[in-house]
Amino acid sequence: MNSNKEIRLEDGRVETIESIYQVYRDPLYRFVYRYSGDQQLSIDIVQDIFEKLIKKQQYSPEKGRFKTYLFQIAYNTMITKLKRRQKLRTLLPFLASERPTAISIEEKMSVQKAVQRLPEEQRAVILLTYYHDLPQKEIATILEVPVGTVKSRIHHAIKKLKEELEVDGDER
């Protein structure tokens, strides 16, 4: 962790990312874990919060307390990840199952083959969205296309996968 980055808190103090991490890591983890009940998701989200803080600190003391700012990032990140997970479960319920022994090798192979048969552009957005958990804005940057194009490709890819795999349910 880059401890050189400093953040000015609401009381005027300047703290390093490392000291902020030491103070807020556990409370943020407990919040996410109590909400989601998922240990790995909670660990990932806490890591994401501090990566966001390092990459693009947008905290402004005039807007409120730093703790509130961090918990807002945690909540928004968690909700986004949970929505993606639910969308994946709707699309491919056995792929996101919490009972991995219930998934047959044939089912896994049919999903892999269906994803491989998608047009290249659609395959890229499905892999980046569901397998690498990237937000649409980052996918747009990676693929050098507008966010609207990413959304459209996801929509069409999901439709094709549902048809091919004969999965019922809404994509949302």
UniProtKB/TrEMBL annotation:
It comes from the Bacteria. Residues 21-87 form the RNA polymerase sigma-70 region domain. The keyword Transcription regulation applies. It holds the Pfam family Sigma70_r2. Residues 109-161 form the RNA polymerase sigma factor 70 region 4 type domain. The keyword Transcription regulation applies. Keywords: DNA-binding, Sigma factor, Transcription, Transcription regulation. Gene3D superfamilies: 1.10.1740.10, Winged helix-like DNA-binding domain superfamily/Winged helix DNA-binding domain. PANTHER family: RNA POLYMERASE ECF-TYPE SIGMA FACTO (PTHR43133), RNA POLYMERASE SIGMA FACTOR HI_1459-RELATED (PTHR43133:SF8). Belongs to the sigma-70 factor family. ECF subfamily. This is RNA polymerase sigma-70 factor (ECF subfamily). It comes from Siminovitchia thermophila.
